[in-house]
Design brief:
6-stranded mixed sheet, 7-stranded parallel sheet, alpha/beta, 907 residues, 35 helices
Length: 907
């Protein structure tokens, strides 16, 4: 290793491992590995694309990078203080490759060798080696995504990038070139022009009508005339970004007269590309306001009386259609006339509205199909419907097509979503084991979903028998000889386990393991399957990706992905390849459908039910951004409801599994409000209830959830609600009997030589407890929150288990799962969660396998408040489960009177 010479500078030597992603470790001069938190700031110091490292992914000592990120970050431009070098020859070669790829991205010749096939970016084989081609393809794809563009738009921007680059046109010192769309004036046609303005001005310049066709060098104002060649070149590049403009005269400033249809084509295809590259686009303000205007359709769904007794997905339904346009109600006759007129822009009331004629035609076709055909619940809710019905509005309470189910259909749908009353299937006689009751439910669910034509994700906890449930299913499927075998793809590490389990439980199934260097390939593989006719083909993710051509040619009886999180990265070649495999039934097995990001869930659903969670861009806008960036409970609930029919998850805490743990006593600790709390409580409730009467259902839901949080904080302590700082225990405790009781009880538990856990939802409550216990009892009480580093978290857990401190405060979200804290004999819940599953998971940190002592659970409840009323309601709602599997927002569905009763303070 070469030592650096520059005084004050630093060198980090990089160890680089390449799989689907790059894993990078940094080593200092003394040979010690450095945590990424220390060295990555120097790597990301100029990287705007990742918000200077805020979006970086770290795994232990590894920085995890996509190929595109690797190229962008290691392109030869080091920090002035830190230099990065490869540790070995292989590491050096990877860094050199990153520089070569970076240089290629700035090479205009590259774009002569780039093409698009489907959704893949293809680099011509004569341009660089395979490594460089793969890097370039991945990097170009990431550049497109960062600009909000799709792969399909690449051909339209290739010429522009070749000459201007990804950053766009070099700005001029004294002018701005833009495009302007003007509404019809004296003629029915629109005017589209390329225009100029002074950099400090706002008025656009364009030639007069009589001089529009004169050459640029003659018609330009004197101040810009010497720049005519430069302006002509920029105009050509700008217009090259417009798919709707097929030709133009490069010698003059472009202008054209457009019809409504041409304007719509420009708005739909061109403006997004122009704005992605910073081109100024001027359109009428009223047109901007109506670009998103859509007709709204409501259908009251009911079943004919003669069919009312039929129960099942094939139940026939009927529709009563209602229409509105920008809030104006339309009759069926109005709607039909709107479609027949085929106008793009109409005036309704006092406003202009842009009408999507193509959308209207699709809607009319959908309505005609629905009225003429015997649609079923299955047709309407899931897949066999026109795409227009699957479109989602950005506002949940204003969908494009809204279906209102009558009571009988809603009851039926609820049963299906809860997976109750599924048709039972006889367990195959040749299954050499007995299925536990919950495994039988899983088997029935697998068979039911196959018969209905839906893929699914079986997401039971590890150890609950996903394997035996699938083997039972395969025996059922292949009891009648199938023309094609079923395919199971799994990690290499469990390939042998699958083989043994199939031999053990289903020896009648003929199994072929497609693995190893002598496996048949290409036509030999197809011929082998035809001759041998196996029931099940076992293979690995790596083999499936490398032998993709022959595997994709087959239509399998079923395709199962074991440890399906292996396809979680949607952009890897392996994931894209396997998601294109074709089978009659697609099944994903995984205990972790979401490990880090929601894109992983999308990738799994793209395999089991392609298109059900939309295209990735719409999924990002609808779910990923609201949930991952804004923590939107509304978006979470919407996603839970959407995935619920296709995901079956049971945990080891379910009552079907007997764990033989010692006894557990749960006890409610009732505490009255102080006068200060009661006055604040009643004031908040009265103010909020008055607001509720003026709000829509959607707004009311948001207000209810916001009020719920405020009331629960107020029940804990008024200082949390009023956002007051901690003063002293003497001042803070008398203001909340709950806080005083918890502090006192925790102190007494510690004095008896026992240990306890205190769970709270609120960081502020944790700090109040922490400071008061320390002040009164002298205990240094750790507080585990989501921001605590893993090493510190693990150290605290080990210290608590060893009895080094008696009281441990934990954030309910950060400490409610995944920890083993069996040293505790008391669990204190400072505030109530409306989902009992969350509380139970937290309690199970102490009451779990390995616990040998009696566990006392204390749940603190303020009398007469929402906490007491929630506790009463929860006794009726114990079936509610964990996040994303079943709803935990049941309170927002209560009526106004029920909500008033729930929130009102009553002694």
């Amino acid at each position: 290793m070469t030592q650096f010479q520059t005084e004050g500078s630093r060198i980090y030597y990089l160890k680089i491992t390449k799989g689907d992603s790059f894993r990078v470790q940094a080593i200092n001069e003394t040979g010690n590995r450095i945590p990424p938190e220390i060295w990555t700031p120097y790597l990301y110091f100029m990287d705007k694309a990742s918000f200077f490292g805020l979006k970086s992914e770290m795994d232990g000592l590894d920085l995890v990078l996509s190929p595109a990120d690797f190229v962008r970050l290691f392109n030869g431009d080091d920090h002035h203080y830190v230099t990065f070098k490869g540790q070995t020859d292989d590491d050096i070669a990877w860094l050199e490759l990153a520089e070569k790829v970076s240089d290629s991205l700035n090479d205009p010749r590259l774009w002569e060798n780039v093409s698009v096939e489907g959704e893949e970016i293809i680099i011509d084989s004569k341009y660089g080696d395979m490594d460089i081609q793969a890097f370039l393809s991945d990097t170009i794809g990431q550049q497109l995504r960062q600009k909000g563009l799709s792969t399909a738009q690449l051909p339209y921007i290739r010429h522009f990038i070749q000459h201007a680059g990804w950053d766009g046109l070099e700005p001029a010192d004294d002018y701005v070139i833009a495009v302007q769309l003007s509404e019809p004036d004296e003629t029915p046609e629109w005017s589209f022009k390329v225009v100029l303005r002074s950099k400090r001005g706002s008025v656009y310049w364009t030639p007069s009508k009589r001089r529009m066709d004169e050459p640029l060098e003659k018609v330009l104002p004197e101040k810009w005339r010497s720049r005519h060649a430069e302006i002509a070149e920029k105009q050509a590049l700008i217009l090259s970004l417009c798919p709707s403009i097929e030709s133009f005269d490069e010698t003059r400033l472009h202008h054209a007269e457009w019809t409504d249809a041409e304007v719509l084509q420009f708005l739909r295809s061109d403006t997004e590309i122009l704005q992605a590259f910073g081109i100024e686009v001027s359109i009428p303000s009223w047109l901007q306001a109506v670009q998103e205007s859509k007709i709204r359709v409501k259908a009251n769904v009911h079943s004919p009386a003669k069919k009312a007794s039929v129960v099942g997905l094939d139940q026939i339904i009927r529709f009563d259609w209602q229409f509105s346009l920008n809030g104006h109600e339309l009759s069926m006759q109005d709607f039909e006339r709107l479609v027949s007129d085929n106008k793009e822009f109409i005036r309704i009331g006092n406003e202009w509205v842009r009408v999507d004629s193509n959308l209207l035609m699709q809607l009319r076709k959908m309505i005609e199909e629905a009225d003429d055909a015997d649609w079923t619940i299955k047709d309407m809710l899931f897949q066999n419907v026109p795409e227009i019905m699957l479109e989602e509005s950005s506002e949940e309470d204003d969908p494009l097509v809204e279906f209102n189910l009558n009571k009988s259909l809603k009851v039926l749908l609820d049963k299906l979503l809860d997976k109750r009353d599924l048709p039972p299937t006889a367990i195959p006689e040749n299954l050499l084991t007995e299925l536990r009751p919950y495994q039988k439910i899983g088997f029935d669910y697998l068979v039911f979903m196959r018969e209905e034509g839906f893929g699914l994700c079986l997401a039971d906890d590890m150890g609950l028998g996903k394997t035996v449930q699938l083997i039972s299913y395969l025996l059922h499927v292949h009891s009648k000889k199938q023309e094609q075998p079923s395919l199971i793809i799994c990690p290499t590490s469990v390939l042998g386990n699958w083989q043994k389990e199939l031999e053990r439980f289903a020896p009648d199934l003929k199994v072929y393991m497609h693995y190893g260097p002598v496996r048949p390939k290409s036509e030999d593989f197809t011929r082998f399957l035809a001759e041998e006719q196996p029931d099940v083909v076992l293979s690995t993710y790596g083999i499936a990706a490398s032998d993709a051509e022959e595997m994709q040619d087959l239509h399998w009886s079923s395709i199962t992905l074991d440890e399906a999180q292996n396809i979680k990265n949607m952009y890897t070649k392996q994931s894209r390849t396997i998601r294109r495999f074709k089978g009659q039934h697609h099944i994903a097995l995984t205990g972790t459908p979401i490990e880090n990001r929601l894109s992983e869930l999308w990738s799994i659903f793209d395999f089991i039910n392609k298109g059900y969670l939309y295209r990735i861009k719409q999924f990002q806008e609808t779910f990923m951004i609201p949930i991952e960036r804004d923590d939107s409970e509304e978006a979470k609930e919407k996603l839970r409801q959407r995935i619920q029919p296709f995901l079956l998850r049971r945990t080891k805490k379910d009552p079907d599994l007997q764990l033989n743990l010692p006894e557990k006593q749960e006890q409610l600790e009732y505490c009255p409000l102080t006068p200060e709390q009661a006055a604040l409580y009643e004031g908040l409730v009265q103010d909020t209830v008055e607001k509720m009467e003026t709000l829509t259902g959607f707004e009311k839901k948001g207000l209810v959830l916001k009020m719920l949080s405020k009331l629960k904080q107020l029940c804990n302590h008024p200082a949390l609600y009023l956002k007051e700082p901690y003063t002293s225990a003497d001042e803070i405790l008398p203001r909340s009997q709950k806080l005083e009781r918890i502090v006192t009880l925790a102190g007494e538990i510690a004095e008896r030589g026992e240990q306890c856990l205190i769970f709270t939802q609120y960081i502020g409550m944790g700090h109040l407890l922490q400071q008061a216990i320390n002040e009164l009892y002298g205990h240094e009480v750790p507080f585990l929150t989501g921001s605590m580093p893993k090493n510190q978290r693990d150290s605290l857990v080990n210290a608590f288990q060893q009895g080094k401190f008696p009281i441990f405060i934990l954030s309910l979200k950060a400490g409610g799962t995944g920890l083993n804290l069996t040293a505790a004999t008391h669990v204190l819940h400072a505030d109530r969660w409306w989902n009992p599953a969350v509380e139970n998971q937290a309690t199970d940190r102490a009451y779990r396998i390995g616990q040998t002592q009696f566990v006392h659970v204390h749940k603190f409840v303020t009398i007469g408040t929402i906490e007491e009323k929630i506790d009463s309601l929860l006794t009726q709602k114990q079936a509610m489960s964990e996040q994303f599997i079943q709803s935990s927002q049941w309170m927002t569905e209560l009526s106004d009177n029920e909500l008033k009763e729930l929130f009102t303070y009553s002694l």
